[in-house]
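Technical note accompanying the year-one report. For the benefit of new consortium partners, we illustrate the data format agreed upon in the data management plan: each record pairs a sequence with a structure-token string. No post-processing was applied to the example shown here.
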Amino acid sequence: MTSLAVVAIVAACGGSDAKNTAAAAATGDTAVRTEEGASSPVIQWTGGKISPDKNLTTVIDFNAVWCGPCQKFAPVFESVADQYAGEYRFISVDVDKCGETAEQFQVSSIPQITILRPDGSMNSAVGYMTETEFKTFLSM
């Protein structure tokens, strides 16, 4: 099995953006939506560590633009995020832009989906999932 070592991904992606979401601002997260006014509940992470949300389970998709399975999973992640908006906090992390965040969750292969619960406990799965598989994983 081949795995992508997320080694020496230089500094975390940074900078603030005028499109920071209200949710991100309220929790102190550094994140932006992909488009201004976008209705997607998925937060595009722009860097730094991710802390558990005190009220919602956080679902994190670690990916990269050059990763075929990541790109295939992206619409599944978006669809499930739309269906479960308000029940979970969904975050997408590009490992090439957010090395510090990838290191925080010990990402070694992508796509990696990590579920971070309010109590700080977590579990992860690696590889492409269908929508049914992803929903099953969320319920674990």
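Partners are asked to follow this layout when depositing records. Helices lie at 22-27, 68-83, 99-104, 131-138.
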